[in-house]
C-alpha cells in the first residue's frame, strides 16, 4: 500500500551548521526564526561554528536557510552553510526558538 502524499503544511525539521566568522549569527538567526514562526535552537560550538535545529512549515524553513546563506549577521561572514538531517515530522519538538549556551 502506498502512503498518501503529505500535506505541504507537514512540519519539516533540519539542522544547520554554519562555518566562517559567525559572530552574532545565533542572536540574529533566533530573531529571524521567531519572525518566520519557526521553532528550534542554535548553539556556538567549541570549533567556532554554529549548529542548530530548525522546525516549522517547509517554506519557512527554506526561507531561513536562504537568509542564513545570504544575509546572516553584519558581524558574520558565513563561508559555508550546511543543512543536514532534514526530515518531515508529525509534530514540532520545540515550543519556541532558543539560543543554547
TrEMBL record:
The lineage of its organism: Eukaryota, Metazoa, Chordata, Craniata, Vertebrata. Residues 13-101 form the Acylphosphatase-like domain. This is acylphosphatase. The keyword Ribonucleoprotein does not apply. The active site is at residues 28, 44. PANTHER family: ACYLPHOSPHATASE (PTHR10029), ACYLPHOSPHATASE-1 (PTHR10029:SF21). One of its GO terms (molecular function) is acylphosphatase activity. Belongs to the acylphosphatase family. InterPro entries: Acylphosphatase, Acylphosphatase-like_dom, Acylphosphatase-like_dom_sf, Acylphosphatase_CS. It catalyses: an acyl phosphate + H2O = a carboxylate + phosphate + H(+).
Amino acid at each position: 500500500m502506498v502512503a498518501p502524499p503529505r500535506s505541504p503544511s507537514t512540519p519539516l525539521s533540519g539542522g544547520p551548521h554554519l562555518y566562517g566568522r559567525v559572530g552574532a549569527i545565533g542572536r540574529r538567526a533566533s530573531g529571524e526564526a521567531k519572525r518566520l514562526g519557526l521553532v528550534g535552537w542554535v548553539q556556538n560550538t567549541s570549533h567556532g561554528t554554529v549548529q542548530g535545529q530548525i522546525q516549522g512549515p517547509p517554506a519557512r524553513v527554506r526561507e531561513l536557510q536562504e537568509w542564513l546563506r545570504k544575509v546572516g549577521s553584519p558581524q558574520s561572514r558565513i563561508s559555508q552553510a550546511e543543512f543536514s538531517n532534514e526530515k518531515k515530522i508529525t509534530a514540532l519538538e520545540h515550543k519556541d526558538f532558543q539560543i543554547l549556551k
